[in-house]
Structure prediction request, 269 residues.
Amino acid sequence: MSDLYQPLAFNFNERSLAGRVVLIAGGSGGLGSATVALLARDGATVVVGYRHDKEKAEALKQAVAARFKASIHLVEGDISDPQVRTRYIETAESLGDGLYALVCFTGDPARVKFDDVTDADLQTSMQKNYIAPVLLAREAARCCQARQQEGAIVLFSTMQAVAVFESSINYAAPKTALIQAAKIMAKQWGGASGVRVNVIAPGVNRAGMALQSIEAGKYDSFIEQNLIPRFGRPEDIARVVRLLVEPDNYITGQVITVDGGLTLRRDKN
Prediction:
């Protein structure tokens, strides 16, 4: 047996994110706030981008300070606006050693029925769910590349982009395009000291876009038919983000579906 294994001399880094600057776009929302809390607890310097609800963002900032004795930095604005994207990046770059990781939760549910959808509706969905996240990712990668340092980008798609769900085309199509773009970016920016790019595809979670539908009973059949053991929680997502932003990570160009197995059993519903 190798000497490496006899003393269990494995390199399990603790607080490896300490001092690393992580920009979390959409960080004040239901899923994002759990990630903010986890990364702040682990010592990261967290920049939280939020669209317009300043009161919610400030409440998150105060809660993180009280619970984890950590400070987060807030930036307001919709990343569909190029000037807002610049402000997000500049804020992160002004801290510590500059931006290390981007986590982008932002998106729009695009709930207009496809029979009624207009050109403008589809263009808005494409802008919110694909164009803005991709362009923000590009700017984040440029920061890491300019310093010739490793970086991590985590984008958010949906289980509707990895399996076929009826009546989801307005939302699923741009999110599917986002997955392909992430794989291309991972290939283009990878290599030594490169930028890792991965995607998380959440299922039905008690937060964010799905919460209202869960509370209305829309997805009760998933539980009743034993398609999933429970609805997802924000912590489920935060733990996967934490894995993907771990420095010296060995994962890139991948899609991790966090849905309790629903997309595996969708045909039984």
Observations:
- The chain has one domain: 21-268.
- The chain has eight helices and seven strands.
- The CA atoms of residues 75 and 87 lie 8 Å apart.
